[in-house]
Structures are given as C-alpha cells and as structure tokens.
Write a structure and sequence with these properties.
Length: 163
C-alpha cells in the first residue's frame, strides 16, 4: 500500500505556486492538555468539523451569493443527517467519496452514545471551520471563536473531525 505523502505534496504545491519559502508546519514544544474532571458519561460533547457542511435547500454562509466568508459557523445538531452535505472538494476522489456523512460527521453515533449513557448529551450545535493553511488565523481567530461557542453551550469535551 502506498501512502499519500502530504508533507511532500504540500511543499511541492507551495513551491509550484512560487512561494520562496516552503510551508512551515505547526510545531509546539508543549501542548496544553486538560484532563477530564468527571466521567465521560456526565460530559456534554461538542463536535467540530473541517468538512465545510451545508444544509440542503437552505441559504447560509456556504452560498457565494450570501457573502460567503471563511469564518467559523455553527449548525444545529438537530439537523437531520440526510439534509447535510459537504461542499469540500479537497479530498482524494480516487480513494473515497463523501456520500456517507456519518463517516466524517458522526452525529448519529454520538446520539447512540448519549442514549447508552456513554456521554451525557450533545451540544445543541456543532461548529464548522474551513480547512485553511493559516496558522495565525487558526490560533487568533478560529480557535477562540470555537472555544467561545463551546463555552456558551456548556461543552465539556470536543470531538474534532476532518475530511
């Protein structure tokens, strides 16, 4: 099996675009870690995705005509999965499809866990963030906004998913 060499591909991409310096990957000497202070069964779970979700037939920040931005936005967790789809185009179309929303946005599985008592419940909304290569924007704009929304929703622990 051949693996996709993302780091090499990214370096080649930026060089091909004319950037003088290669892409610099995020690196941290220390990583903040916050252990859970209560059992998972008593935790509200939040969900964050980079899969650029949209709701069929509804206008939103994903519409070009609606002054689309690349900011964090939230959708109700109660949105039926069959109405959700991704606008994501940057994935390996030769190896997969994005037809199965639950494979990259596991709302149904998390609901099952809540029903089983494995988690307390789900936050009332989930956050959507665009995949970007701006570490500065991620650290100074997007992450603080996600944290603000999750605190507002009383989230204890977050699940992050990507395509």
């Amino acid at each position: 099996m051949d693996y996709v060499r993302y780091i090499d591909k990214t370096r080649e991409y930026y060089a091909g675009e004319g950037y003088a310096k290669p892409y610099r990957w995020a690196h941290f000497d220390s990583i903040p870690f916050t252990p859970l202070t209560k059992p998972l069964g008593r935790c509200r779970v939040g969900l964050v995705t980079t899969s650029e979700m949209a709701v069929l037939g509804e206008p939103g920040p994903w519409d070009d005509e609606a002054d689309a931005t690349r900011d964090v936005y939230a959708l109700p967790i109660s949105t039926p999965t069959e109405k959700l789809y991704t606008r994501k185009e940057a994935f390996d179309r030769y190896e997969t499809t994005l037809d199965d929303v639950e494979s990259y946005l596991p709302i149904g599985r998390l609901r099952e866990y809540a029903d089983q008592g494995r988690i307390r419940d789900l936050a009332p909304r989930f956050q959507v963030i665009y995949s970007q290569y701006s570490q500065r924007k991620t650290m100074t704009v997007d992450a603080p906004e996600i944290l603000r929304q999750m605190r507002e929703d009383g989230v204890d622990v977050a699940v992050l998913t990507a395509v």
